[in-house]
Structure formats: C-alpha cells, structure tokens
Amino acid sequence: MAGSGTASPLITAREAGLVACQRCGRVHDRATAVCVRCGGGLRSRDDTSTQRVWAWLIAGIIAFIPANIYPMLLTNTLVEHSESTIIEGVFELIHHGSFGIATIVFVASIVIPLGKFMAVAYLAISVQRRSALNQHQRHRLFEVVEFIGRWSMIDVFVVAILSALVQLDSLATINPGIAAFSFALSVVFTMLSAQSFDARLIWDADRKSPQ
Amino acid sequence: MTDNQTIQPAPLDVRPVKRPIWQRISVVWLVPVLALVVSLGVAYSSYANQGTLIEISFENASGVTADETVIKYRDVTVGRVEKVEFAEGLTDVLVHVRVDKTVAPYLDDDAQFWVVRPDVSVRGITGLDTVLGGVYIDGSWDTEADVAQYEFVGLESPPQTRVGQRGTVVSLRASDGSALSQGAPILHKGITVGNLGTPQLSFNGNDVIVDAFIQSPYDQRITSNTRFWDTSGFSLRLGAGGVSLDVNSIASLIEGGIAFDTVVSGGAPVRDSQVFDLFFDEGTARSSLFSSPTQNAEVLNIDVLFDSSVRGLSAGSEVRFQGIRIGTVTDLSAFVVTDQQEQAVRLRTNLAIEPSRLGLGPDATPEDALAFLDGLVADGLRARMITGNILSGSLQVELVQVATAPPAVLTRDADGKGIIPTTKSEITDVAATAEDVLERINDLPIEELMSGAISMMDSFERLANDEDLRAVPSSVSALLDEARNLVGGEDIQAVPADLRAAVSEMRDTIAGLNTVITGANDAEIVQSLAATIETANTAVANIEEATRNLPAITARIEDLTDKLFAIEIEGMVDAATQTLNSIDVLIGSDATADLPASLSAALDEVRLFLSEVRAGGAIENVNSALASASAAAQAVETSVEGLPALSARASRLVSETEAVIQSYGERSRFSAETLGTLRDIQSAADAVTNLARTIQRNPSSLLTGR
Description:
The complex is a heterodimer of chains A (211) and B (706).
Chain A: H1 2-7, E1 18-20, E2 27-29, H2 49-69, E3 73-77, E4 81-84, H3 86-95, H4 99-126, H5 135-149, H6 154-165, E5 172-176, H7 178-196, H8 200-208
Antiparallel strand pairs in A: 1-2, 3-4, 3-5
Chain B: H1 2-7, H2 21-24, H3 30-48, E1 52-58, E2 70-73, E3 76-86, E4 93-99, E5 112-116, E6 119-121, E7 124-126, H4 129-133, E8 136-140, E9 151-153, E10 167-174, E11 185-188, E12 191-196, E13 200-201, E14 208-215, E15 227-230, E16 234-239, E17 242-247, H5 250-255, E18 258-261, E19 275-279, H6 282-291, E20 300-306, E21 318-321, E22 324-339, E23 342-353, H7 366-378, E24 381-389, E25 394-401, E26 411-412, E27 418-420, H8 430-443, H9 446-465, H10 467-487, H11 490-520, H12 523-588, H13 595-664, H14 669-697, H15 700-704
Parallel strand pairs in B: 1-9, 2-8, 10-19, 11-18, 15-19, 20-27, 21-25
Antiparallel strand pairs in B: 1-4, 2-3, 3-4, 5-8, 6-7, 10-14, 11-12, 12-14, 13-14, 15-18, 16-17, 20-23, 21-22, 22-23, 24-25, 26-27
Helix pairs in contact in B: 9-12, 10-12, 10-13, 11-12, 11-14, 12-13, 13-14
C-alpha cells in the first residue's frame, strides 16, 4: 500500500481513510456508516454499480432496436398515409435537400445514442480492466456522457410537439409511433445506466491490478 | 506519525462477506429482462399476426403502388399491397397483397378482386375517394370459409353483382345490342332494381344475349309472364290524342335501359339464367303478353332455300302458316349449293318458329315441332314468299299446303337443321301494274292533239288580229268616257249644293218667323203665322222631297252607266267567246277534210257577225243606253217640275208675310229684319225656279254637262 501510494501523486479518499456522503458531500471517517448531517448511508465504493450499469445498458440497447425498426411518426393527410422510421426520415430529408436537418436528426437519434452505449460500456469495462486512457480522460468521458444524456430526447420532443399540434382530423394528423416510445425508453435507460456508474471506481482500477 | 501509528490499532481489514449470487445480483437486472421479454413478445405477436400473402394478377394495374394501395372488403381495409411485379413473359401484372389473417380463410375460389378507379358516368360518380387517396383494390367474397386459395385473377371492371348479393340473374335475348350497355339500369315502375351485364353475341350469332341482374326482393316480381322492353331513348307518338313524348330517366336516355313488368298473374317462377325476349318498346311488350303467351319459349330454327330473289324479305318478316303468324325470319344469307357438278346460289332464309303456335301445346319443344313439320312436308307443305304489304313491297314467308306439289321431304343440313322445300312464290307487284298504266298513257296520240291545238291557236290569233274587232273596245271606252264626263259635269254636281243652301236659308227664315211670333204674342198674327208656317213647312217638305230624289237620280245614272259598261263588255266578250266556241267546234269537227272551206265560211260568219256588231248591235245598244239616259233625265225633269209650284207658293207666302209685317209696323227694326229674311226666301225660291226652268228648257244639259 505504501508503494502504491508513492507510485501516484494522487491519493484517493479511500486511501486517506475518508468517505464522502454522496448526498450532501460531507466527509466522514471511513468507519462511519451513516452521514451525521443528512442521515444518508455512507459507502466508500458501490460494489453493485457495475452490474446496474450493465443491466440498464442492456435494457437501453434492447429498447433501441424497436426504436429504429418501427415508425417514429404516423402521418395521415388527405392524400396519403405515411409511416417513417428514423433512418427513413433521415433519408427523406436528404432526398429533399435538407442536409442540415438530416445531419441533426442523424446525430441526435443515431450517433449520440450509439456513442453513449459504447462510452458507457467502455467505462464499465475499463474499471475492471486496464485501459488505454488514463483516469482523467475516462473521468472526462463520463462527464460528457452524463451531460449529453439529457439532450438525447430531442427526437422525442419533436414528435411530442408535432403530434400535439397537428391534429386536424381528416385533413392531416400526426401520431407518435411505437419507435418514439421505445426511443424515449432507450434514452431513459441509458441515462440511468450512466447514473448508476460509480465514477470513483475509475480511480481504483489502476491500483487494483498491482495488488 | 510513527508513534501514533503504533498506538493506533491495526487497520481493519474489512472485507465484505461473500453473499450468495442471488443476493449480489441487483434488482435492476429485471429491467433488461423485462425489456427483452416485451420485445420478444411484440416481435412474436407481430410475426404471428402477419397476414397471409396472396397474389392477384391483373391485366392493368394502373395506380396500384406497393406499400400504399390497400385492399378493401366492404369498404374496410383488410390488407395492403406489398409488391407489384410482372408475371413471366410480361403478360400480367402480379400484385402481392398481405391480407389480414382473419380474412384469409374466406378467400376461396369465389373471391373476386378489381381495382377501383374513379368512374364518371350518367348514373353518377363512383370511386371519387380514389381521386385523392389513390386507387384501391376492392374484393368480394362470400361469408363461407372454403378451401383457401392464394392466387387469384383480378377483374378488369367491377363485377355486375357482389358475391353474396341476393337477386336473380336472367338472360335477355335481343336482336340488336346497340341500345344495351353494361351497367345500364333495369327499371321496374321507374325504380332501378338491377342492372345489365355485358352484352354478348349468342352462340349462333343471331341474337345478342345480355345478363340482367335483378336485386332481391324485386326479383320476386319476375315470372314467366314478365316482359322486358327497351326504354332507351325516347318515343314520340302522334295520334288522335295529340303528341305524346315518353322520356325515361336521363341515364337511360343516354345509356339505354331495360324495364320490365308483370301484368298478368299466374306465371311460373323463374329459374336462374332463364331466357327472356327483349322487346323494342313497351307497347309491343305488353301486347305480346296476350298475343304470344309463350314468347320466351325456345324456338325452332329451320331453313328455307329460295332460288328467286328475296328482295322485300328481311329479318323480322313474319312467317305464317295457313294465315296465322307462327314465327319470324331471323336471318338471310346467300348459300352456294353444289348440285350435280353445277353450282347455284340459293338464298338461305332462317325461320324461327314458335312450337306452341303450331298448335302443339305450351310445352312443345323444338324437336316436337320439327317432327310435326316433317309430317306436314310429306303431305305437301311448302314454303313460299307472299306479298305482305303491296305498297312497301315487303314479303312474308308462308307455309302452305300444295296438293299438286311434287313429293319432297324435310331434309336436314350438316348441322341437323331442317330445310323446308319451296314452291312458286306469289308476289303481287304493284310496280308492274303501275308500269302498265304508264304504258297506256304513253300510247295516247298526244302529238296529234297538240298539232290540232296549235292550228286552233293560229286561227284564233288571226281572228284577234282583225282590226274591226280591235276597234270595238276603243269605241266602247270613248262612249264610257263621254258618259263619265256627263255625270262628272259641274252643273249637275252643283245642283244638290244649291238646293241645300236654299233649304238652309228657308230654315233660317222660319226660325226668324218663330221668334217674331213668340215676340208678338198676338192671336191673329199667330194664327196667320201658323198658317204661313204650315205652308212654308209644306214647301220645305216638297223641296226636301225633290232634293231626296236628286241623289237617287244621280245614283240611277251611275247605275245605268255601270250597267252600260258591264253589259257592253260582257256582251262583247260573250259574243267573242261564242265565236271562239264555234271556231272550236269548227276545228274539232270530224270534217277535217273540209277544214279550209269551213274555216273560210266560219270566218265569213265571224266577219258578218262583227260587221253586224259594228253596224247594229253595239251602236244600237249604245243608242238605247243613251235613250234610257234621256229617259232618266226626263224623270229628273218631272221630279223638278214640282219646283216652280213650290217657288210660287213660297213667293205667295213671302208676299203674305210681307203684308202681315207691313201691317204690324213699317219702321220697326223687327219688320225690317223679317222683311230681309223673307226677301232672302224669295231669292232662294227664285234660284230654285231658275234651276227648274233651266232644267226644263234644256234637259239634255243634264247629259251633256253643258
């Protein structure tokens, strides 16, 4: 332990025999079980974190599949009835020349969710194994994933607003498809997954292996 | 630090107790498991509920688009087109349709599919929703699940009847299909109760057969006594009741239509596809109900081969047997007969004979009729053409028993159709008779007649050119001119005006006298005045009478002149006509040989007559006319003769009055006025006297106007 402490200039709270309350932030002695300020339980490391991350992540991936297979928008106009999935919508936008919007939709609906999946999975794996990225970089990645999570709902918001506004009886109606629901679920699951991740584990990873 | 470390207890090596795996596993794992289960469940159910794929082939699938075109059953969407492709060899368009699982079992061999497109016709507009929403495939099948099929042949147009639609289909037999169009309405008492199918030629090509679908419950109205007729177009009848114009619905006017009615009860119920005749109009249809109760029965088709011209015979001509109509001619065609290496053209006439009309009973079949005719032919039954209508020259076919006919039998042609032998036709030709008449007219000696007439005209012209004859009208007109001058003379015309002036003056005088008398108020004066007035009245009456006669005299003169004018001309013309008549007689007489001599004699007579006319007749007539005119003048004279007496009395009256007035008072203004008045009367009377004297002295001035 002493050797490992000299190997890194950083010292973790755990190494210092301290534990911070996850709720109010008060630092206690490691032996304290309950926060003296807010009454919250004190744990130096959440040992169920990893498996909760994986569980939410898998649920998010499962929800992401129908979100791409089933139609997002059900558009009924006087002349036609159309259903389009996310990808179809993107291609349609490209076909009409709206490259900017197509890019936004594509990034928000496909790239970001997929990137989140991969980022969360990478983080979950990296706490158990050695990683190419150092701890600071991984911590930054985690922050980005958490920050970006709340913006993934753009698609869902658009669908919700459209279907609320365009209800002109037989003339034109827009209804959300199954995909909208699945996509929302997928985003929620992914956010939960990212939240379940205990970032403190990042700092333990390198210290475990020499032990 | 190190001391502290030694004092402090050794750090606790706290290790969590190894809990069993089910306790270590987070509850969160339920979420992905649940998501997985739900996803799999949804996937399975969508796969399980996926419809059955069927294949419909169309010749023309315009507007059918994959993923968009739906298939409907009773206007409910039951499937969607998945793919549109061509069959092998590009013969048909194959449309792959995913049909709902619940419907698929009912798609058996009676299922029909067609593409619904907008259709604008006289009957209305259908499929309007497809204009905006695109075409869709409509299907029709019954409600019984039979052996399900997966490949169907689509219809090009909507079927006449929906599968499962209740009603009856009967076949209508018409001779002409021009008035029939698919979908045309069938009307019963003006209500559309069904529609027509596609008209088709019958098997033998003689008729047009069209299926007619009548919806339930209207089909109960159809019995074997039902008659169908064509209501297309309009009919215009001109009769004793005026003009009647029948127009049915506009739709049937343009598209044609069929109407039916069952007037007589007791008909047998119809079976499906029973054949009915289609009549040309309602009248024919209704009358056929009584004249031919078995109109819709099967007919016997039989041929007759005529070797003479069949001009005048046409499809629809009647076929009569012993004078009774038993059928119609349905077809005429030329036909080459090879007989002992000689080819001859025969005219094949197809007859449709109704077996029941041969007296074989209502249930007789064509075979019965053929056998019956077979027997009759052996006994001498022959076909011939007879005149049906002398004016139009139309012919009929008559089956007649010819006792002297050479023996023959009812032969059969290759198709087993009977051929009735023929006999000499009896055709009354009105054209030949007319030709006879014309020939007779042609033989008439018209040219001789013309030359006789021309010579007569010549002699007439010679007569007319005679100068003496020409002079007659001018002398007559001169005479008339003189008479007119006489009548129009100013003196004669002035007479009535003078008389009228005199009378009016007299009236003034009398009026003046009346005033005098009223003003005087003296008994004696009144008495004498009354007497005077009476005398004056008498005088006035006389004058009036005389004056009244004058217009009459003038009228008589005019009358006379008119008569003169009329009598003379008429007489002359009569005489001339007489002359001409005698000339005519002369020319027309048989003694043409003595023509020159007779003509000259006639001319002599004419000349003699004319000279007579010149010498005596006309002049004498004029003279006598003048004499009567002078007699008229005499009458005027006598009528005016009363005038001097009248003036005398007037002058006496004046003198008397003068005396009265003088005794009344010389110098008074009244008497002077009265005197003036009386003098006026006197002068008037003098004027009348003068006139009378003038007339007396010179009565001829009345005529001469001088």
